[in-house]
Amino acid sequence: MNSRELVKRTIEFDHPTRVPRQLWTLPWAEEHHPEYLRKINQDFPDDLISAPGFYQQPVKTYGEQYEIGTFVDEWGCIFENCQRGVIGEVKIPRIKTWEDARKLSLPEELLTVDIDMVNEFCCRTEKFVMAGNCPRPFERLQFLRTSQNVYLDLGMQSPGIFDLLHHIHDFYLKEMEIWASSEVDAMMFMDDWGAQRALLISPNMWRMVFKPLYKEYVELAHAHGKYIFMHTDGYTAEILPDLAEIGVDAVNAQLFVMDIEALGKQLRGSMTFWGEIDRQYLLSFGTPAEIDEAVQRVKRAFYAEGGVIAQCEFGAGAKPENVYQVFKSWQEV
């Protein structure tokens, strides 16, 4: 059973021969632990990979995303970074007034994907291939307006924020439609929705404003025969059932800030849990025994002849031996 079949069987709860795996790596890990990273990749190669964009027009950015200093992304959002190897923050809004929003130029270069090259990439691999784009409407609002302004805009029900959101959403639908015409196996979207112990906005507002957008992403992917994955950080227990309801096939959530066992009772068998293992304590400070128990907890809660992908992030502060132990444990369960 190759990686592509393994992941598909996992999502379908169809008796995969093992739990598929995927390591997320930040440049911090590449800089600080290159030898350990090579060992992890050698001993536990990924089953899921992302396709390059193969854009026919160059994507316009400025600076280096993971270096100290200023980085300007393809939407013109300005990130300030004070630590090498991680992503910076937006301090100055690109859109200060709603007049600015009407002048917003969209990154049309992202629509120039060379589908033939993407298809060739997919055909050359037995890995499960994710599309190379990732809609993130809530986060894009924050990058354009800053988080503080977005929370005020939503709380005050400003018409301008909803016009901007739907402008962003329409662009993402165009981008997704292009990728959906390729031979990738799955598509992905993301937004970080949780603080440490609660959702960042009320569940009712989330369901009113953002859930319908996500439902359109899911429907578009499924209409083209693609699986659809979502990543969201923080405490999101209140909306995970909604994601299962609209048909999200796999979710990458910060499980260890929530009640894993309660989530398992509620959602086991309804969608695949695509990681993760705790970044706040376990990967940085945990013992091998604690890593083993964490893997067992996730499997006990969510595994149902499939439904679990072994994933964790090798980022700032993580002990390389603990990241290695995560995949070793998954291989042995």
Quick summary of this structure?
With 333 residues, the protein is an alpha/beta fold.
Written description of the protein model:
The protein is α/β, with parallel strands linked by helices and about 325 residues long. The chain has a single domain, classed as TIM Barrel (Alpha-Beta Barrel), CATH 3.20.20.210. The chain has 15 helices and eleven strands. The chain has helices at about 5-10, 25-30, 35-45, 100, 115-125, 135-145, 145-155, 160-180, 205-210, 210-225, 240-245, 260-265, 280-285, 290-300, 320-330, and strands at about 20-25, 50, 70, 80, 90, 130, 185-190, 225-230, 250-255, 270-275, 310-315. The chain has a six-stranded parallel sheet with strand order 1-11-10-9-8-7, sandwiched between helices. α11 (about 240-245) links the parallel β8 (about 225-230) and β9. α3 (about 35-45) packs parallel to α15, α6 packs across α8 (about 160-180) and α8 (about 160-180) runs parallel beside α10. The chain is globular and about 55 Å long. The relative contact order is 0.15.
Salient structural properties:
333 residues, alpha/beta, six-stranded parallel beta sheet, TIM Barrel, three-stranded antiparallel beta sheet
Major sheet details: 6 strands, parallel
pLDDT < 50 runs, ≥5 residues: none
Shape: globular
Structural class: alpha/beta
Instruction: Determine the fraction of residues in helical runs and give it as a percent range.
Output: 40-55%
- Beta content comes to 5-15%
